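Good day; I would like, with your permission, to put a structural problem before you. I would ask you to consider whether the tokens describe a fold that such a sequence might reasonably adopt. The full record is reproduced below for your convenience:
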Amino acid sequence: MLAVKIVHFLALAIGIGGSAANLLLAVRAATIPAEARPGLGAIQRLIGRVAFGCVLLLWASGLAMLYARYGGWAGQGVLFWLKIAAVAVLTVAATGLQVLTVRAQIAKAPPPRTAMLRLAVAANASAMLAVLFAVLAFG
């Protein structure tokens, strides 16, 4: 189970780092020349895919640890459920970012900036809350 916990923490680090990096790149994108934006967008899409993959890996490794250590969902305290709520918001926001990105690629247009920024902020905030509640729930 130690290997699963290591994978879980690495996915957390890469996912949060990627999401934060993309948020900073999105803010910076407004100030760079128009001809540089497609290259920046390609980097952001790659980072976004990796971060989204990390969210999926977090679910898989988290569920594995939950069942291995606690036998499942039963008996978990309020802080655990607050963590799950934060992870659910993170998952919805990350999925929304991926959907908007794919739609933009199909339309060969940039994704809607305001919606992307709102979802990125929601993803980052909920990820931080998930970490806070996880630490409080599991010490």
